[in-house]
Amino acid sequence: MTRIGANIKKIRTAKGLSQQAFAQLFELTRGNISSYEESRAEPRIETVVQIANHFSIPLSQFIEQTLSIHEILKYNGDKLIEDEKHITNLQLRSVPFINDAIYLRGCYEELSFNDFDSFPKLILPEVNKSSMLALSFNPNIPHHESLPQYQLNDVLIFEEVTQQNIHLCQHKTGLFVAEREIIIGQFEMKDEKIDLVLNDFKRERFDFTVARRFWKLFAMYQHMV
Predict the structure, then answer these.
(1) Dihedral angle over CA of 93, 196, 147, 119, nearest 10
(2) Which of 128, 141, 176, 195 is the S-S candidate for 203 at Cβ 3.0 to 4.6 Å?
């Protein structure tokens, strides 16, 4: 998970801004800011860059580190990111995106759900080295009943489950992707085994030998009407 929400709250405190005043700087709503600060949603990458630019905070620090009030106050310039070359150096990455069109084509067996190279791409900040996968939430996708109340077109960002992060999966939202099937479930670990559980009748046993099949929720971008 990124540190964006916590840093937005720190910036507001350091600058003496209300949620409403902060929102108006970036053509957002007070509800947007509240959602970001409470980690119920994360801003679009364009908004993240705009905020970092406005307060002259290095983008990598704004995303990855929990900034102190002192660190925020030491950034005084008006512009930090000024050209495409600099943005390229911020190590953005292209992430395969399962949108509604891809989901429907997969349901009709016009393509495989794990044919990631043929999917459209989202551009996201490079926050770790794990493989990433984006999914536009659709209530028709089989999903665990305990999931948060995601809305149609909310974008869920997943990172591949690996030996380095598997210990963080317990009771977390996960994604299973096979050639003809995707499910959004909840990870359950017991006796050194881990399953992605959809319901009492459907679960998938995690297997390290199969790459890019199990994914752990990393972030969520809330669709705003």
Answers:
(1) 30
(2) 195
